[in-house]
Amino acid sequence: MTDNHDQSQGGNDSPQGAQPIGLGIQVTSLMNAVLRGAATELEPYDITPLEFTALRMCLAKGETTMTELATILPVDTSRTSRTVTGLVDKGLLRRRRRRDDRRVVMLRLSEQGIELTSTLQELLRAFDARLTENVTEDELRVFESVISRIAANYAAMQETE
Fold first, then answer.
1. Which of 32, 108, 110, 145 would you label with 85, given CA atoms 20 to 30 Å apart?
2. Neighbours of 92 (CB within 10 A)
3. pLDDT reported for residue 16
4. What is the pLDDT of residues 73-125, one digit of tens each?
5. In whole angstroms, how far apart are CA 57 and each of 69, 71, 93, 109?
6. Per-residue model confidence (pLDDT) at position 132
7. Which residue ranges make up each domain of the chain?
8. Alpha helices of the chain — where are they, by DSSP H?
9. C-alpha span between 134 and 143 (Å, rounded)
């Protein structure tokens, strides 16, 4: 029996008969490449990938709550709060309390935050294009589909536990 999967078709690089590299290792390797590369791209702007994610969400939503942001960022609420405080201190984010419920903290980008986030989005789009330079549109669609299915499987597993 021959192995029909080579590197160009998305097969693994392991020798004939060797166990394929686990999903966790593959995802971790990809995540490290993307995050380290993004961090390098953002570094001249004194912005971390976590801060950029917060800025991007605020740009997309217009205004969001601290609670919403905390559910999206992959860190605990105290780290989210420190991240927001840093962005406020840099003049990129504005924080206000709702009049009808002072417990709710609303977040909105400042003008400087809007400009910087837009610039950084373009910078990271160009970085993504370099990362996927030798990957076809069809391969990217399949990749995105597989990622979505794996995430959905995980979500379903969490619901049954």
1. 32
2. 22
3. 60
4. 888 889 999 999 999 999 999 999 988 988 888 999 999 999 999 999 999 99
5. 8, 11, 12, 10
6. 95
7. 41-135
8. 23-42, 49-61, 66-72, 77-89, 111-131, 137-160
9. 14
Position 38 pLDDT exceeds 80:
yes
In this structure, are residues 13 and 57 in contact, taking their beta carbons and an 8 Å threshold? no
Task: Please report, to the nearest 10 degrees, the dihedral formed by the alpha carbons of residues 25, 28, 32, 38 taken in order.
Answer: 140
CA separation, residue 86 to residues 14, 29, 56, 89, 123 (Å): 44, 29, 15, 5, 22
Band of residue 149 on the pLDDT scale cut at 50, 70, 90: very high
Q: Is the distance from CB of 77 to CB of 70 less than 8 angstroms?
A: yes
Place of tokens 């740009």: 59
Q: What is the DSSP letter of 90?
A: T
CATH number for the domain running over 41-135: 1.10.10.10
Q: Say yes or no to pLDDT of 60 above 80.
A: yes
Q: How many other β-carbons are positioned within 10 Å of the β-carbon of residue 135?
A: 11
Which pLDDT band, with edges at 50, 70 and 90, does 7 fall under?
Answer: very low
* Contact in structure between 109 and 95 (CB atoms under 8 Å): no
